[in-house]
Amino acid sequence: MCMLQETEHNNGYAPFVVFWIDLCECGHLLRDDYRFELLMRTLPLTDQAKILRKRGASDKIASLIGALLVRYVLLEKNVSAKSWHSLAFQTGDLGKPYVENSKFKFNHSDEKHIVAVAIDFQGVSEVGIDLANPEDVGDSREFLTHFGPIFTNLELEQIDATISDLPQASQQQHLSLYWALKESYSKFKGVGLHGNLQKYEFINVSPPTPLPQQIPVAHQQAVYKLLPHNTICSVVSSRTSVPDFVRVDGADMIDYVTNMH
Question: What is the pTM of this model?
Answer without folding.
Answer: 0.90
